[in-house]
Amino acid sequence: MSLDSARAGSAVERLSASEALQHLEHERGARLAQLQAVAEASGGAPQAEGLQVMQRGAIEQALKEIDAAFARLQQGTYGICQRCGRSIPVERLEILPYARCCVPCQQRTG
Predict the structure, then answer these.
(1) Is 8 within the bounds of a domain?
(2) Closest C-alpha among 70, 62, 106 to residue 86
(3) 15: pLDDT confidence band, cut at 50, 70 and 90?
């Protein structure tokens, strides 16, 4: 099953919905494990505490992005760049399953 039925004739390889779901679930599990490790980390030094706060914030942001990707998957818009509307290459989605944009659009926005 193609994630982008409107572009079904495209030569661009697509992730199946089940593959995308599997990638996202794996990513969520990894981020939750990271969050657990940060919570369990000790050290007591003020610099370490500040770093833990930053790490926690970054992990929580990634979890929000993953949840948004799950929503896009359900809506049928997963794998479509939110800026230009083109397909996001499967290689990018395998590396960053919750990517909202293709690389050129991401680079333009910084």
Answers:
(1) no
(2) 106
(3) confident
**pTM for the full predicted model:** 0.79
Beta strands in the chain (DSSP E): none
State both tokens at 16. 């199946």
Quick check: is 2 in a domain? no
Domain that holds residue 65: 15-109
List b or e across 43-76, with b for residues whose CB sees 16 or more CB atoms inside 10 angstroms.
eeeeeeeeeeeeeeeebeebbebbeebbebbeee
Give the model confidence (pLDDT) of 62-77 as tens digits: 999 999 999 999 999 9
Q: Which CATH number goes with the domain that contains 54?
A: 1.20.120.910
Contacts for 80 with CB less than 8 Å, ≥ 6 apart: 4, 72, 86, 87, 88
Q: Which two tokens stand for residue 7?
A: 């572009």
Give the C-alpha separation, 21 to 8, whole Å. 19
